Amino acid sequence: MGAQLRVYKQKISSAQTTKKITKAMELIAASRIQKAMARVRASSPFSRAVTSAVSAVATHSNIDHPLTREREVVRRSAVVIFSSDRGLAGAFNSQILREGLELAQLLRDEGREPVFYLVGRKAVGYFQFRRIASAAEWTGDTDTPQFSTAEEIAAALLDAFALGGDNGGVDEIHLVYNRFVSMMTQSPETVRLLPLAVVEAEDSASHAVYPLYEFEPDAETVLDALLPVYIQSRVFNALLQSSAAKHAATQKAMKAASDNADKLITDYTRLRNNARQAEITQQIAEIVGGADALSSGK
C-alpha cells in the first residue's frame, strides 16, 4: 500500500511539473501572438496600396507582361509550403503539410510536376524523412519573420518562373500557408501567386472605379517595378499570417495540455486519497484485531 502511495505522489509531482512548463509556454505564446497580429495589421496598408497600384496598371494597360501571361502548357508548378521551426502547436504543421501534398497530387493528376519550396524546419524534416526532393529551403525565421526572408523567397520564385518549366524552372507558383482567422481557428490557405491574376488578391478593391492614368515612362516599365514588390508583399504577408497562426495554435495546444495536467492531478489525488484511506482502514482493522486477540487471551 505504501508503494502505491509513492507511485501516485510521483505521478502527481510529474503532472504538476508538466503543468508549470505548459502554462509558461501558453503565456509566452499569448504575448507573442499580440506582436504577430500587430505586424499583420501594420503590413496590410502597404499590401493594399501595392495591390491597388498593380490593379490600376493591369486594368488600364493592354501590355503582355511575362508575370501576367498564362503559359500555353504548364509542365512544372512550384508549391511553397509555410510551416514552423518549432513544434508543440497541435495540428498546425500536419494540416498545412497535408494541404500541400493534396495540392501536389491534384497537380500530378492534371499532368503537372510539383516542385516544392519549403519554409520552416518542420516541413524540411518531413520531406527529408520521406525522401521527397525540394528545390529550396528556408529555416530559422518563422517565429518573427523578417522582410529579408520574403525578399529571398520572392527572388528564388521569380528566377524559377523566369526560366520556365522547359528550362528547369516553373510555369506557375502556389503558396500554401495557415491563415490566422481567430485565436481558435487557423485555416489552411492555397493561393496561386503567378501567373498573376490581380482579382485573386484578397485586399484588392476589385469593384473600384479607377481614374484615368498616364504611365511614365511606360506601362511595361511600371509593371516591371511594381510586380516584384507585389510578389514580395504577398510572400511576406504569408509569412506573417503563418507566424500569427502558429502562435495561436501553440497557445491553444498548451492550454489544452495544462487542462489535461489539471485533470491528471485531480484524478491521481483522488486515487492517492483512496489508497491512503484504505491503508488507514487496514491499520485500524489490524489494531482492533490485535486488541480483540489480547482481550480474548486474558
UniProtKB/TrEMBL annotation:
It is found in: Cell membrane; Membrane. Residues 254-281 form a coiled coil. One of its GO terms (biological process) is proton motive force-driven plasma membrane ATP synthesis. GO terms for molecular function: ATP binding; proton-transporting ATP synthase activity, rotational mechanism. Keywords: ATP synthesis, Cell membrane, CF(1), Coiled coil, Hydrogen ion transport, Ion transport, Membrane, Transport. CDD domains: F1-ATPase_gamma (cd12151). GO terms for cellular component: plasma membrane; proton-transporting ATP synthase complex. InterPro entries: ATP_synth_F1_ATPase_gsu, ATP_synth_F1_gsu. It comes from the Bacteria. Produces ATP from ADP in the presence of a proton gradient across the membrane. The gamma chain is believed to be important in regulating ATPase activity and the flow of protons through the CF(0) complex. Belongs to the ATPase gamma chain family. F-type ATPases have 2 components, CF(1) - the catalytic core - and CF(0) - the membrane proton channel. CF(1) has five subunits: alpha(3), beta(3), gamma(1), delta(1), epsilon(1). CF(0) has three main subunits: a, b and c. This is ATP synthase gamma chain.
